[in-house]
Amino acid sequence: MQETFTGAWGLFLSAFISSTLAPGGSEAVLAYMVSQGHYPVSYLVILASVGNTLGAMTTWGLGLLAAKKFPVANLLSEKKQKALAIVQKRGIWVLFFSWLPVIGDAFCFAGGWLKLPIIPACLMIGIGKLSRYAVIAWVFV
To answer: What pTM was estimated for this model as a whole?
Structure first.
């Protein structure tokens, strides 16, 4: 029982860390765990999606805090400025693509910076993350 609990928490933590500003490999962890068949696939997909969404919302919160402390957008890195411009132009729908490598974290940060509503932001991020993990799980079943 302890091994199953540790494995599940490992996936959750990997997904959380992968969605903050730190790099991670939650896709590989999910693929491995799905291929092992020790857990129901839906459980793994939901666990990874929740962890990854919470990590993304942490990045969203960092963007919100940064906007309060440093309200001038030109203080941001080039990547974050580009993401900020895209989110300003396209709105909350861009957060669906927060799963994209490199720019996805910047979308979440920009969403917080722009003070996008937290519930719709969380929903868009969560739907995007769930979709990505569902595709990964489907490939490795």
So the answer is: 0.87
